[in-house]
Amino acid sequence: MTPQDKASKLREVFVTSDLTDHGALVGHVEASQFPIGGPDGGGHVSPGPNPYDLLSASLAACTAMTVRFHARRRKLPLERVQVGVSFHHGAQGGRDSFERTLVLEGELDAQQRATLLEAANLCPVGEILGISADIHSRPDATTSDHNASTHASYEDDLAELQIPYIDPD
Which of 75, 95, 168, 169 could be bridged to 158 by S-S, CB 3.0 to 4.6 A? Predict the structure, then answer.
């Protein structure tokens, strides 16, 4: 692929302030729009996924697509895939990490499940993120239990970072 071919396949994401909603941020990808949550700099907290949620969602979506692609290519009986991703800041300057849980449904034997779990590591977004963060994958036989009370907030994430001149609202 030539550099010109790559340039023609770029998709740009725009994030703009919504002046009608306290300056809340809105992401734009082609015709799609989505809210971006977190502190807005004016004392309000905008609803929606924060930047770390969006990063985790990108890894989860790419992983699910990659696993589905490999299952179809190998004609494996994967009926449904669910990928959960959580992000963890590295303690005291350590590497950040993602914990990725895969739920694979269908009449898959142990070898087929192992093959699909291995395929998850071929996810292109994971390869990019893996340069600066660790990504740990694990299978899960059941649907993950999403408990909102245990989720970290974007404000918590900002408070953990040692970034000069940036304070959470």
Answer: 168
What band does 164 get if pLDDT is binned at 50, 70 and 90?
very low
What per-residue confidence (pLDDT) applies to 145? Answer: 47
Whole-angstrom distance, CA of residue 41 vs CA of residue 20: 15
Task: Show the tokens assigned to 41.
Answer: 């700099």
Q: What is the pTM of this model?
A: 0.75
First to last CA, the chain: 45
**Each residue's pLDDT tens digit, 99-131:** 999 999 999 999 999 999 999 999 999 988 888
Per-residue pLDDT, 137: 85
Residue 44 in contact with residue 70, Cβ under 8 Å? no
> How many Å apart are CA 122 and CA 117, to the nearest integer?
10
Fold of 51-144: GMP Synthetase; Chain A, domain 3 (3.30.300)
Structure tokens at 153: 């907030």
Measured in residues, the chain has a length of 169
The residue ranges of every structural domain in the chain are 3-48, 51-144
Which amino acid type is present at position 18? D
Compute the C-alpha angle 26/28/33, nearest 5°: 70
